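Issue 218. Parser rejects a valid record. Input:
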Amino acid sequence: MALSKIQSESINLADTFAFTGTVTGAGAMALVHSATATSGSAFDWTGASTTYDQYLVYFNIDPSADAELRVRVYDNAGTPALKTGASDYGHGGINEGGGSAHNSNLADFIKIHSGGGGTGANEFYTGYFFLFNPMNSSFFTSLSGCINADSTSGDHIIQWFAGQRLASEENKGISLYLSTGTFTSASIKIFGMG
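Output the parser choked on:
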């Protein structure tokens, strides 16, 4: 017999529950990728599928040098989307203090962060972005998010950013990389949504 209704006073939601069946109605968000690194020049993920319309990407990165944090998307063939002699991306961002704003409609990457991070103590990048429509060829693949960091002088920076690939085709994933240097340590988690 299926239980269709539980009175609110008959169950204590502060308890711990172990669900063994399928839970529905709680939203569709699933961890699809998780990785850590002690060194490297990029995080590459090509696992986008038609199962999800968008993805949520969390990252923590300790760069080896003062560098911009950038993203490119992977095209449907599984290579970073760059057309020879053309600029595939538009992007923009703003710093909460008004400095380090950036924008471009003729870029070969999406800039997530400028003006911070590096070799100093606690000069990390921590943030997230939503990746929209990667496998929908009717729309541009786009992203938007927020990053916390410290400047090269150790001051806090927060930036909001957005960007898109200026082409309507399927994109299999992302490459998250630094303009120079490598990751001293890094972690990334990607969740599929809806």
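Fixed in the parser; the record now loads. The two ends are 30 Å apart (CA to CA).
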